[in-house]
Amino acid sequence: MAVPVLLGILALAVGGCVCVVWAEFGGPRWVRAVATATITVGGVLRFFEKGSRRGSGRTGGDGD
Predict the structure, then answer these.
(1) Angstrom distance (rounded) from CA 1 to CA 6
(2) Phi, psi of 3, rounded to the nearest 5 degrees
(3) Could you give the CA distance from residue 26 to residue 15 in angstroms, rounded to a whole number?
(4) Backbone phi, psi, residue 61, to 5°
(5) What is the CA radius of gyration of the chain?
(6) Does residue 19 come out as left (phi exceeding 0), alpha (psi in the -120 to 50 range) or beta?
(7) Angstrom distance (rounded) from CA 46 to CA 60
(8) Is 54 strand, coil or helix?
(9) What angle do CA 16, 18, 22 make, to 5 degrees?
(10) pLDDT tens-digit profile of 8-56?
(11) Predicted pLDDT at 57
(12) DSSP conformation letters of 10-49
């Protein structure tokens, strides 16, 4: 069950990247909409990733 879900997520990610590149060359309106959504989701994920790294409790020390 997990493999089809992961393949679906991979297909969405690859499709979003293709739409971003196509939109750079002036694709149709729906391609630009998908590209905007892809870039927005990527920005949101980066924002939450930065927040989770800050609160992880790691100090980077040598374990004193």
Answers:
(1) 9
(2) -65, -45
(3) 16
(4) -80, -170
(5) 17
(6) alpha
(7) 21
(8) helix
(9) 115
(10) 999 999 999 999 999 999 999 999 999 999 999 999 999 988 877 765 5
(11) 56
(12) HHHHHHHHHHHHHHHTT--HHHHHHHHHHHHHHHHHHHHH
- Per-residue tokens: 56: 């992880």
Residue type, 13: A
At 57 the three-state DSSP class reads coil
pLDDT band at 61 (very low <50, low <70, confident <90, very high): low
Q: In angstroms, how far apart are the furthest CA atoms of the chain?
A: 58
Q: How many residues make up the chain in this entry?
A: 64
Element (H, E) at 4: helix 2-24
Using CA atoms, how far residue 8 sits from 22, 29, 56, in Å, is: 21, 24, 30
